[in-house]
């Protein structure tokens, strides 16, 4: 995890205590806040109590398998990312998990480095999706000449300047800006 980034919350779900321990230690070293669950029902309880950036889930578990957990997590929070991990990997199982909305699929045994790569990729994609949503929201609200601008003023002449900027902002043409020294042409 890069420095300056918020701590990522990851839920690890596996009925095998050794796998939970390895993933927990590795992800904490990576800088994540890790919560564990031994089965799908316990994982859903955690997911109802708080939001997670990522869920790392085994497929074969008692009470609720990873596919059902994935489906129920997606119903609870459609944007949640889930990395499916299984010792019983097959192409059909991987395709099913991806169709159900898994962010990625990893077969056991795996290396810690492989987990880091997958988790990093999933969280980078999540960050890009969030940024994209934010930009789309800003775009839908319309261009605001004042946001991100150091221009100030609400007088009629300044309103005409804002209108002129708005009129040419979408064009790919050169614009000559004239004015006295110190009037803020560079802004």
Summarize the topology.
Elements: E1 9-13, H1 17-30, E2 33-37, H2 40-49, E3 54-58, H3 66-76, E4 82-86, H4 91-99, E5 104-107, H5 112-141, H6 156-168
Parallel strand pairs: 1-2, 1-3, 3-4, 4-5
Helix pairs in contact: 2-3
Would you mind describing this structure in some detail?
By secondary structure, the chain is of the alpha/beta class. Helix content is 47%, strand content 13%. It has 6 helices and 5 strands; from the N terminus they run E-H-E-H-E-H-E-H-E-H-H. The chain has a 5-stranded parallel sheet, with helices on both faces. Strand 3, helix 3 and strand 4 (82-86) form a beta-alpha-beta unit. The radius of gyration is 24 Å and the shape is elongated. It starts with 8 loop residues before the first strand and ends in a 19-residue tail after the last helix. The mean pLDDT is 84.
Q: Rounded to an integer, what's the Rg over CA atoms?
A: 24 Å
End-to-end C-alpha gap: 36 Å
Topology order in helix (H) and strand (E) letters: EHEHEHEHEHH
- Write down how many β-strands occur, each being a DSSP E stretch of 2 or more residues: 5
The residue fraction in helices comes out at 40-55%
* Order of adjacent strands in the largest pleated sheet: 2-1-3-4-5
Name its key features:
187 residues, 6 helices, five-stranded parallel sheet, alpha/beta
Describe, in short, the structure shown.
47% of the residues lie in helices and 13% in strands.
